[in-house]
Write the structure tokens for this entry.
Amino acid sequence: MAPTTTLSQSESSYIVSSLSLPTPIRTDGRSLLDYRSFSLSTGVAPQANGSARVLLGGVGGTEIVTAIRLEVLDRSVGLGKEEGSSVGGRPDVVCSVECSSTAFPYLDPKAVDKLSDHLTTLLQHTIPPLLPPLPITPSLSFHYTIDSLILSSSAGNLTDTLFLSVRSALHDLKVPRTRNVAYEAVLKSEEGENDMAGIKGAAMGAKKDLRGGEKVARGAEFEVEDYWDEGDLLALDVRENLPVCVTLNLLSNSTHFLDASLAESLACPTHLLLFVTGKGNLAGMRFIGQETTSIQQMKELIEAGKSYAANMIAGTNLKLKDPSTATAGGMMGGLGFFGS
């Protein structure tokens, strides 16, 4: 179906009534709980430390690429609240979602920006707490920059595909091995005693050397042991605990279905987004829509969502362990700045 922003009343009624039948009917023949096939490739962005591309629904479907770069920044790793923010966050993890110009040709730029902000917020609130800090020296650390690019949205189900792309890119992430390098230098009198009462020496960590009484500047740096495409993967328990998103699309007859097509999503605008870790814990949830649900039904939906997530994680892990999933040399075509 060609992308549209709205459905006619008759189209919506037909889709909802078909899904609500005792034997539900979907246009592609799936059952309510079936996902469409997806393809997954890792190592698609040559200059990234980790990357992945996920295509849902075959050629012309929903396609999202995620690239992760590790930047060395001169500030300590912290888990507290950032200054000026009321939301607890990780200043060493920054997530961003962008839309290509062809992904949403039917939406105006403001709507596309709003969607990008919404998806970025979902990632920023869910992914950082599950990632380990990557310190290098007491004052330096690797900081995660996670960039996702939506290339196409024709098959719908953006959120599930986005989290699958991010999870796969983090599986592919290689952290460069580093070696600490210490140095010390004896400060000459003009660099120490005559330096504004020793300000330069203090800045360099100058101390009195017990052997000669001279001021000695000591410091620490690091050097990278690997080439750009080498390094250590994140710990296995970290990679396998990364979350997926399961979107439960709710019908008025208290049933739900998975992996909504674009038309199904428009016809059934009430969704429960569950973010579930590999250990089966609920990392977050979002309820979207104007319909209401009881507490008991919500509990049942959460338990069902955890079961669906476990199956998704198991299937994804098998794909990620398959050597054919890795793209030799990276996939350059159509990635824009991801491939540079």
